[in-house]
Amino acid sequence: MVEKTPRELYTGLRSGLITSGIDLDRLEKASKSKADYIHLELEDGILPERRPEARATVAKALKTFDWSGKITMPRVNSVDSGYLEDDVAVVADGVPTAFLLAKCQGPEDVEYLDRLITRREGALDLPDNTIKIAVMIERARAFQYIDQIATASRRMFALHIGPTDLSAELGYRRTYRGEEIETYYVRSRLVVAAHTHGLLAFDTPCVHFREPEETYRQARWSYHVGFDAKSAIYPPQVEHVNRAFSPTEEEVVWAESVFAGKEEANNSAGRAVWEKDGMMLDDAMIARATAILELARKGV
User: Fold this and answer.
1) pLDDT truncated to tens, each residue of the chain (300 aa)?
2) φ, ψ (nearest 5 deg) of residue 156
3) Where are the alpha helices (DSSP H) in the chain?
4) Which residues, listed in sequence order, are joined to residue 5 by a DSSP beta bridge?
5) Ordered domains of the chain (ranges, CATH)
6) Contact by Cβ (8 Å): 102, 136
7) How far lies 203's CA from each of 72, 90, 195, 217, 226, in Å?
8) pTM of the complete model beyond 0.85
């Protein structure tokens, strides 16, 4: 039997929530939020001297709270940080969905993390390949080898863009407003790689976290570019990201018209191309229409 890809297993996603790994109360609130994935922070958002505390807190949260229906992704430190081994050893006890590897440089980093997880799964008597791997693409070398990273392990689950770190190495100047056309290439390239290899594509959060319409505007652009979901750094942002990743009324009407037209075409000598409300339609649009209706059913 062919194993399903993450893109096939996790459909209808919209938002993620970044949550500090040292605050058990916030982690509990995150487990009850309307975000689809939770980024449990163990890396740059935690002072080095508090990382042991964060590991223990995240492991406890994963084991204590109900994460049903959510993807849990602790962001672990980079391979060269000296912290990764302890991150995996402690947090794997909570059996997260995936470890989100920070500052990945290439496929060899993914392979190293894979070996750490395999060793820890064995010690915990977990089935092989229980814990997956997601990767932050925030280094120029990682961007260059993005397809090799995407296929470096059968644990590969998702790619997450890190455009600010990337900008320091690639030289583009982020505006942090609107569609950020200066980031279009790196973002769209990540989406292409993720979709090609059956992985999920996650976008970076809007840093103007107290501006609902800016959050919505940026998330809506992410939706149209092809990301599966967008992160939030402030719980109230989740509502606006979810709204942006939810189809508009016009999109739902279009999707329904695709299926209505398809039925009419099938009843008219099995035509492969049909017209509905002045628009030419064919089977290539069925997948998009299906995704729109699935998201619409999920609601905000």
Assistant:
1) 778 999 999 999 999 999 999 999 999 999 999 999 999 999 999 999 999 999 999 999 999 999 999 999 999 999 999 999 999 999 999 999 999 999 999 999 999 999 999 999 999 999 999 999 999 999 999 999 999 999 999 999 999 999 999 999 999 999 999 999 999 999 999 999 999 999 999 999 999 999 999 999 999 999 999 999 999 999 999 999 999 999 999 999 988 888 887 776 666 656 677 777 777 877 888 888 888 888 888 765
2) -55, 135
3) 6-9, 24-31, 51-64, 84-91, 107-124, 140-144, 146-150, 163-170, 184-196, 212-225, 237-244, 249-266, 286-298
4) none
5) 6-244 (3.20.20.60), 249-298 (no CATH)
6) yes
7) 16, 27, 14, 13, 10
8) yes
Q: Label residue 24 exposed, middle or buried (CB < 10 Å: 0-12, 13-18, 19+).
A: middle
Q: Compute φ and ψ for 154, nearest 5 degrees.
A: -70, -10
Residues in the chain, how many?
A: 300
Phi-psi region of 118 (alpha: psi -120 to 50; beta: other; left: phi over 0): alpha
DSSP 8-state code for residue 66: -
Angle formed by the axes of helices 249-266 and 286-298, nearest 10°: 130
Determine how many CB atoms are found less than 10 A away from the CB of residue 237. Answer: 28
Q: How far apart are CA 253 and CA 245, in angstroms?
A: 16
